[in-house]
Design brief:
Layout lengths: L3 H10 L24 E5 L2 E4 L4 E4 L14 H11 L10 H11 L7 E5 L2 H16 L3 E6 L11 E2 L5 E3 L1 E2 L6 H4 L2 E5 L3 H11 L3 E6 L13 H13 L3 E5 L11 H6 L5 E4 L10 E5 L1 H4 L18 H14 L4 H19 L2 H7 L1 E6 L2 E6 L16 H13 L2 E2 L8 E2 L6 H27 L1
Parallel strand pairs: 3-16, 5-9, 5-10, 10-11, 11-12
Antiparallel strand pairs: 1-2, 2-3, 4-13, 6-8, 7-9, 12-13, 14-15, 15-17
Length: about 450
C-alpha cells in the first residue's frame, strides 16, 4: 500500500498542530504508523490522498448513518447555502428539525441545539446543577462524555471514588465535584447515594457505553439508576451522543424504556455536520435562559446548514424498516466473519464479537461479556494493532484504536459486507498463524 503522500502531509502537519492532528486519536499513537489522510468519501467507501480505497466502518465516529456524501443530505445543504451560511438569528429550519425530533421521540418535550456533543453534555451538567441546586455529578469509569473540565476525570483506587483529573489544566477542585463509580456495580452506586445524596445533582451515563469498547449494561442496572435518581431527587442524564438515533430513532431510552431527565445528542442529528443538542421535560428545560437562570448560548447554535442536513438525514431514518435493516446487516457481517473462520482460530485468539443495533466491537478476551472498563485486557491491544494494519493494507478502515467501536451504515450493501467479512477473516487467520509461530519459538 502506497501512503507516500499521507506521510509527507503528516510531516507537514507536525509543524502546524500538536501531534500533527486536531484530535488525539487521529495521530495513530494507539496502533502505530502514519495517519492516513482522507481525500473523499462516497457511500461506504473512503479514498486517501494516495488513491487507496477503504470500506469504512468508522463513519466519522458514528454520525454518518446514511454513509458518506449522501445525495439527499448533499442536495439539502447545497440548496440551503444559496441563502447564506449563518445568521446568528432564528430560522424556520430550527423549528422544522426540532419538531421532527420531538414529534417522534417520547423522551424529549423541549430541546436546545448546540454545536457539538461535548457542548451538549457540558450544558446538560450545568442545567442539572441549576435545577437541583446541588453540585456533585456521578459518572462511570469507562464512559466518555467529551472534554469539558467536569468530566475529564478518572477513578482513583476503589469502586467509587472522588474523581482525579485525567488531563493537565483541569483543577483538582473541579475534579472533586465529580464522583467516579465502576460500571455495573450496584453496591457502589447505592453506597454513593446513601452517603452523598444531599450533594448529588445528577448521574450521567452512556446507557450504551461505546467510547471504551462496547460495554453493554443490564437493563436492571439502568433501571436502578433511574430509581435512585428519583428517590434522592437527582437527575438522570443519558449521554446518547453515540446511541441516539443510531440504535433507533428514540435511542437507548426507548430500547430500555427508561425515561432520562435530560438526554444529549451529537452530530448524527445534523447529518455529520457540527451540531449537538440536549433536551428533556418542559419543566427542566424551562430553567435554560432566557426562560430561566441557567445561562447557555452559541452563535452557531441551530445554524441553517446543520439544520438542513439534519432534517434530510432524520427523515431517511424515519422510513419504515430503516433500523431493522441496519441491525440485519450488522448480524450478517459478524456471522460471515465467524463462518469464514475455523473454530480453532476463534478459540485460540479468544475472539468475541459484541453488537447492538448497527454498532459492533470485537475484543480478544476469554470473557463472554464485558461490562466494565477494567475487564478489557490491555495486552490484547497488541493483537488488535497487528490486525488493524493488516485490515488497512487490504482496504478496510476502522477507528485507529482497539477501544473504538465500529458502525454499519445504510450505504453498506450485503455484497460489500460479505467482502469485508472475508478480509477480516483472512487477516485474523494470519494473526492466528503468527501467534502459533511465536509460541513455537
Amino acid at each position: 500500500m502506497n501512503i507516500a503522500t499521507s506521510e509527507k502531509l503528516y510531516q507537514k502537519s507536525l509543524h502546524c498542530f500538536p501531534g500533527g492532528v486536531n484530535s488525539p486519536v487521529r495521530a495513530f499513537r494507539s496502533v502505530g504508523g502514519t495517519p492516513i489522510f482522507i481525500e473523499k468519501g462516497d457511500g461506504c467507501t473512503l479514498w486517501d490522498v494516495d488513491g487507496n480505497a477503504y470500506i469504512d466502518f468508522c463513519c466519522s465516529w458514528g454520525p454518518l448513518i446514511l454513509g458518506h456524501n449522501n445525495s439527499v443530505i448533499r442536495d439539502s445543504i447545497t440548496k440551503t447555502i444559496q441563502n447564506g451560511l449563518s445568521f446568528g438569528a432564528p430560522t424556520q429550519l430550527e423549528n422544522e428539525l426540532a419538531e421532527l425530533i420531538i414529534s417522534n421521540n417520547r423522551f424529549v418535550e423541549k430541546i436546545r441545539f448546540v454545536s457539538s456533543g461535548t457542548e451538549a453534555v457540558m450544558s446538560a451538567i450545568r442545567l442539572a446543577r441549576g435545577f437541583t441546586q446541588k453540585n456533585k455529578i456521578i459518572k462511570f469509569d469507562g464512559c466518555y462524555h467529551g472534554h469539558s473540565d467536569s468530566l475529564l476525570v478518572k477513578a482513583g483506587s476503589g469502586l467509587a471514588t472522588f474523581g482525579t483529573s485525567s488531563s493537565a489544566g483541569v483543577p483538582e477542585t473541579f475534579a472533586n465535584e465529580t464522583i467516579v463509580v465502576s460500571l455495573n456495580h450496584r453496591e457502589a452506586i447505592e453506597h454513593v447515594f446513601k452517603h452523598h445524596h444531599h450533594e448529588i445533582a445528577a448521574v450521567i451515563i452512556e446507557p450504551i457505553p461505546a467510547n471504551n469498547g462496547l460495554l453493554l449494561q443490564d437493563e436492571s442496572y439502568l433501571t436502578l439508576l433511574r430509581e435512585l435518581c428519583t428517590d434522592y431527587n437527582a437527575l438522570l442524564i443519558f449521554d446518547e451522543v453515540i446511541s441516539g438515533f443510531r440504535i433507533g430513532f428514540e435511542g437507548a431510552s426507548a430500547y430500555y424504556n427508561i425515561q432520562p431527565d435530560i438526554v444529549t445528542y451529537g452530530k448524527i442529528i445534523g447529518g455529520g455536520m457540527p451540531v449537538g443538542a440536549y433536551g428533556g421535560s418542559r419543566e427542566i428545560m424551562s430553567f435554560i435562559s432566557p426562560d430561566g437562570p441557567v445561562y447557555q448560548a452559541g452563535t452557531l447554535s441551530g445554524n441553517p446548514v446543520s439544520m438542513s442536513a439534519g432534517i434530510a438525514q432524520l427523515k431517511e431514518c424515519l422510513k419504515p424498516g430503516f433500523y431493522t435493516d441496519l441491525e440485519r446487516k450488522t448480524n450478517l457481517f459478524i456471522t460471515a466473519i465467524k463462518d469464514n473462520l475455523q473454530n480453532v482460530e476463534l478459540e485460540t485468539l479468544n475472539l468475541k464479537f459484541f453488537s447492538i443495533g448497527s454498532i459492533f466491537w470485537f475484543a480478544f478476551t476469554e470473557l463472554n461479556s464485558i461490562k466494565r472498563a477494567d475487564e478489557i485486557d490491555a495486552n490484547s491491544m497488541k493483537i488488535f494493532n497487528k490486525m488493524y494494519h493488516k485490515l488497512l493494507k487490504r482496504g478496510v478502515y476502522l477507528g485507529p484504536s482497539g477501544y473504538e467501536v465500529g458502525f454499519i451504515s445504510a450505504a453498506h450493501d450485503d455484497a460489500t459486507l460479505l467482502k469485508a467479512a472475508s478480509i477480516f477473516a483472512n487477516c485474523l487467520s494470519e494473526v492466528f498463524t503468527e501467534s502459533k509461530m511465536e509460541k513455537a519459538l
